[in-house]
């Protein structure tokens, strides 16, 4: 069994670990694995690459993703697709699935408000909060909106130190920032979850 050194703090070695798992699955376990036809994959990262527009890194668990397939997923600005076909039904289904997933998260009466770029990133942020014993009272995905600042401001009456938004990998435009400042809500923003947590803990 190969040994792959990794660092959870810096993220080093994660790519090597995934590569090792994939290679092992495709060689030693290839005859033992059953692959359903229905596609099941996990999004690792969404980024903009010059010359290639939006790039999405995924790990395919089941099924096959082929060139020219139509895909629908939730992005920072809501449902998005690379196809111009009539896919309103799929978009509606994606929105419903995300809403159900977000609603299923157990929240507290008192706690910080967490905003992340997508659901997997949201789960990562919440895991870090749990390790630090930091409660969260609300969650959302996509860019921070005035409504998010409004909800976070409710903590001023219950526990002022939690009247803040932890924005992980999402944008905060100037108008929303000014609105949050007016409401007395502090916004911590970072693309790195460890930097985000450190900023909050030092505040």
UniProtKB/TrEMBL annotation:
Keywords, comma-separated and alphabetical: GTP-binding, Nucleotide-binding
TM annotation in the entry: none
InterPro entries: TIF_IF2 (IPR015760), TIF_IF2_dom3 (IPR023115), TIF_IF2_dom3_sf (IPR036925), Transl_B-barrel_sf (IPR009000)
GO terms assigned for molecular function: GTP binding; translation initiation factor activity
Domain Translation initiation factor IF-: 91-199
Signal peptide per UniProt: none
GO cellular component, one term: mitochondrion
Protein name: Translation initiation factor IF- 2 domain-containing protein
Organism: Acrobeloides nanus
The organism's taxonomic lineage, starting at the top: Eukaryota, Metazoa, Ecdysozoa, Nematoda, Chromadorea
């Amino acid at each position: 069994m190969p040994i792959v050194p990794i660092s959870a703090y810096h993220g080093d070695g994660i790519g090597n670990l995934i590569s090792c798992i994939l290679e092992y699955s495709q060689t030693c376990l290839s005859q033992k694995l059953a692959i359903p036809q229905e596609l099941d994959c996990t999004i690792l990262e969404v980024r903009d690459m010059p010359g290639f527009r939006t790039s999405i890194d995924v790990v395919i668990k089941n099924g096959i993703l082929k060139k020219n397939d139509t895909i629908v997923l939730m992005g920072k600005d809501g449902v998005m697709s690379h196809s111009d076909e009539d896919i309103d039904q799929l978009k509606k289904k994606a929105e419903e699935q995300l809403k159900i997933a977000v609603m299923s998260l157990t929240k507290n009466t008192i706690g910080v408000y967490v905003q992340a770029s997508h659901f997997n990133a949201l789960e990562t942020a919440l895991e870090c909060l749990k390790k630090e014993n930091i409660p969260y009272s609300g969650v959302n995905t996509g860019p921070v909106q005035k409504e998010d600042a409004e909800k976070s401001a409710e903590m001023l009456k219950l526990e002022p130190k939690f009247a803040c938004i932890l924005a992980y990998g999402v944008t905060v435009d100037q108008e929303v920032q000014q609105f949050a400042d007016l409401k007395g809500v502090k916004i911590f923003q970072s693309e790195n979850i460890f930097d985000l947590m450190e900023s909050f803990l030092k505040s």
